[in-house]
């Protein structure tokens, strides 16, 4: 049996194979037509036209050098879209659950928060745009609670 001549791996999970002239053309998993090109892509145990293996979101060709194939929920995605849809932003600093990348978040310094979690962690007051909030020991505080905390610790300027 003749070994496949193949170009090196383009990216994880995608192989480019040269089509042997004496073999039956393979069907493309993307468009279901026969692949009569000189090269075909093999990914996910299926064969594809070079043009048919595309990201379901942005249509970029995944056979291009440097791109990586990601699959999830029957979608074939490029790395960027995969991370955008299924990656995570980080852990919410308030409830410490993961925040998926597509969710809106509030950021304060290096912390990220669910929108719902972004509230004063002492009195649960939500903040509106323009409201002041304070970060203390990694807790979000409203101005009132922040100042009260300072008073208790005796950092506030003493009023005589
Ligand atoms: Zn095709
Ligand atoms: Zn994409
Ligand atoms: Zn949260
Ligand atoms: Zn508060």
From TrEMBL:
Cited InterPro entries: LMO_RBTN_TF, Znf_LIM
An example Gene Ontology CC term for this record: nucleus
Record key words, sorted: LIM domain, Metal-binding, Repeat, Zinc
GO BP: positive regulation of transcription by RNA polymerase II
GO molecular function, one term: DNA-binding transcription factor binding
A Pfam match: LIM
Stretches assigned to the LIM zinc-binding domain: 26-88, 90-152
PROSITE patterns: LIM_DOMAIN_1, LIM_DOMAIN_2
Gene3D superfamilies to which the protein is assigned, alphabetical: Cysteine Rich Protein
Protein name: LIM domain only protein 3
Organism whose genome encodes this protein: Scleropages formosus
Lineage: Eukaryota, Metazoa, Chordata, Craniata, Vertebrata
């Amino acid at each position: 049996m003749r070994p496949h001549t193949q170009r090196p791996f383009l990216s994880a999970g995608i192989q480019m194979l040269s089509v042997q002239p004496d073999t039956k053309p393979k069907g493309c998993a993307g468009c279901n037509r026969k692949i009569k090109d000189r090269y075909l892509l093999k990914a996910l145990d299926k064969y594809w036209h070079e043009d048919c293996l595309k990201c379901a979101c942005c249509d970029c060709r995944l056979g291009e050098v440097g791109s990586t194939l990601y699959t999830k929920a029957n979608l074939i995605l490029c790395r960027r879209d995969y991370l955008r849809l299924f990656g995570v932003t980080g852990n919410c600093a308030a409830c410490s659950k993961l925040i998926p990348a597509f969710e809106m978040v509030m950021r304060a310094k290096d912390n990220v928060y669910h929108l719902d979690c972004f509230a004063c962690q002492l009195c649960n007051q939500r903040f509106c745009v323009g409201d002041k909030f304070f970060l203390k020991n990694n807790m979000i505080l409203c101005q009132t609670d922040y100042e009260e905390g300072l008073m208790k610790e005796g950092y506030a300027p003493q009023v005589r």
